[in-house]
Amino acid sequence: MSSLYIGIMSGTSLDGIDLVLVRFGPRPQDKLQPELLDSLLCPFSELLRQQLSQLAQSGPNELELMGQVEQQLALAYADAIKQLLAKAKVAAEQISAIGCHGQTIRHRPYAQFPFTYQIGDMFRLAAQTQIRVIADFRRKDMAYGGQGAPLVPAFHKAIFAKPDSYRAILNIGGIANITLLQPNMPVRGFDTGPGNGLMDNWIQQQGLGLYDKDGLYAASGVVQQDLLANLLSDPYFQLQGPKSTGREYFNPQWLAHKLLANTYAAADVQRTLTRFTAESIKIALVNEAIEELFVCGGGAYNKVLFSDLQQLLPAVRLQQTASLGIKADDVEAMAFAWLAYAYDHKIPGNIPEVTGARKAVVLGAEFTY
Ligand SMILES: Nc1ncnc2c1ncn2[C@@H]1O[C@H](COP(=O)(O)OP(=O)(O)OP(=O)(O)O)[C@@H](O)[C@H]1O
Ligand SMILES: CC(=O)N[C@H]1[C@@H]2OC[C@@H](O2)[C@@H](O)[C@@H]1O[C@H](C)C(=O)O
């Protein structure tokens, strides 16, 4: 019998909760394509968004705040799941499991004792929904010496790889990450650097909204070449993979440091940040003979960013993942539904060449109701 899974992703953009309902075939060895049945985006309340943003950086009273926010987040996830089930007209009993990423509030793969924290009380989520939850996907990879990220490459390989074409999948969320699906080669993948995160921060600081819809604000500015060169001079871009990063590094303080004593027009900064994301992705792909690049994550909708990427990668056919049947918004959440399915079928969820782990392992832990 086929089985239904729910995937939940709330990522570094802090825009809200992405959910999908997916049907998987009964036996992984049949390699049936998963069927995306429904999806939903539930924005965070302004208070929860602010609290999560606060927790993503060091500050006073963190532990107390984290305890409170973990519970609120679980309730927000549970509410979002109830909305999805009602929309899809599916009962909780029909769902095999929820695969939930949780909310990253700290990711320190380069610390003396590397660690990564994804919060959200998964027992509360299971109790509220009466559905078992598979979560905590990153820490086992880290326990085997990996970075704990990115994890989506195994899913990309399972559903997007082609034997005769060099495909790459680019996720542009708050942070951007790439998966390289080169025929007859181990899958590679890593975080390329900032995605929309710095652009979101900047437009928010100008009081012009939460993000630059379709890149319209960036389109009103001009790329400042000296600022662009300064941004690209960060050593992260020259590091070889495995590598991963987050908001603890590429954040408003990082940008403020780069802008020091300069008085660029605000729209020019937005335009330059957009170009910067595209240029940093180009650096990551410089020696790769990619034929097709599929873009997902909210950044796929930024028209200026998309056109910058196409201009910088003229030999590559650039498309959104929608052309492969999965909307840009749904890919990451679907990956977490797949990781829950992989847990249930004892399929490793990490790729050692990607994360740097010593071996491939089944990721996640089960939270029962
Ligand atoms: N129409 C649009 N135009 C421009 N940007 C958009 C549009 N829609 C979404 N975005 C951008 O996409 C972001 C959300 O992307 P997404 O949900 O993929 O990120 P995330 O999952 O939170 O991050 P990550 O993948 O790093 O964990 C928004 O914050 C915004 O910057
Ligand atoms: C620690 C963490 O939450 N990392 C996220 C983040 O958002 C994008 C990029 O940085 C990626 O490494 C990862 O998410 C995706 C889902 C991943 O693990 O593949």
From TrEMBL:
Statement: the UniProt record of this protein carries the keyword rRNA processing: no
A Pfam family matched in the record: AnmK
GO molecular function: ATP binding; kinase activity; phosphotransferase activity, alcohol group as acceptor
SUPFAM superfamilies in UniProt: Actin-like ATPase domain
Keyword terms: ATP-binding, Carbohydrate metabolism, Kinase, Nucleotide-binding, Transferase
Pathway(s) of this molecule: Cell wall biogenesis; peptidoglycan recycling; Amino-sugar metabolism; 1,6-anhydro-N-acetylmuramate degradation
GO BP terms in the entry: 1,6-anhydro-N-acetyl-beta-muramic acid catabolic process; amino sugar metabolic process; peptidoglycan turnover
InterPro entries, sorted: Anhydro_N_Ac-Mur_kinase, ATPase_NBD
Residues annotated as binding ATP: G11, T12, S13, L14, D15, G16, I17, D18
Tagged with keyword Nucleotide-binding: yes
Catalytic function, reaction form: 1,6-anhydro-N-acetyl-beta-muramate + ATP + H2O = N-acetyl-D-muramate 6-phosphate + ADP + H(+)
Enzyme Commission identifier(s): 2.7.1.170
Family: Belongs to the anhydro-N-acetylmuramic acid kinase family.
Function per UniProt: Catalyzes the specific phosphorylation of 1,6-anhydro-N-acetylmuramic acid (anhMurNAc) with the simultaneous cleavage of the 1,6-anhydro ring, generating MurNAc-6-P. Is required for the utilization of anhMurNAc either imported from the medium or derived from its own cell wall murein, and thus plays a role in cell wall recycling.
Protein name: Anhydro-N-acetylmuramic acid kinase
